């Protein structure tokens, strides 16, 4: 059972997911720039706008964590799970995430930041 209020846990998780998303976007931008697209700039612009938005939100989350004396650290990772340490106002909690869930949530965020409707 966590002692971290839902709102604060959501901000900690934002600080967990957004760096993953940023890494994906930056790698994809390079792939687009190196790809054989006839016209690359619209795709690059979309990804760059998403990168700017992610960086802005990550900065907001980081500032909030510092202000509220919260920390996030990856402790260990294996093929199936990743464990994180959440430090909330001096109290440490360990949270384990199923790696496919991390990937799926990162994909959801990617769709949000790229403004893609997944309902088809």
Automatic annotation (TrEMBL):
It comes from the Bacteria. InterPro entries: YhjD-like. It holds the Pfam family YhjD. This is YhjD. The lineage of its organism: Bacteria, Bacillati, Bacillota, Bacilli, Bacillales.
């Amino acid at each position: 059972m966590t002692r971290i209020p839902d709102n604060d846990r959501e901000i900690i998780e934002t600080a967990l997911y957004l760096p993953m998303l940023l890494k994906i976007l930056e790698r994809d931008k390079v792939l687009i720039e190196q790809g054989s697209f006839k016209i690359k700039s619209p795709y690059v612009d979309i990804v760059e706008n998403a990168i700017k938005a992610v960086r802005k939100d990550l900065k907001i989350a980081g500032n909030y964590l510092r202000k509220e004396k919260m920390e996030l650290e990856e402790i260990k990772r294996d093929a199936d799970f990743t464990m994180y340490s959440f430090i909330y106002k001096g109290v440490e909690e360990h949270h384990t995430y199923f790696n496919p869930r991390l990937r799926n949530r990162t994909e959801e965020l990617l769709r949000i930041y790229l403004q893609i409707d997944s309902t088809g």
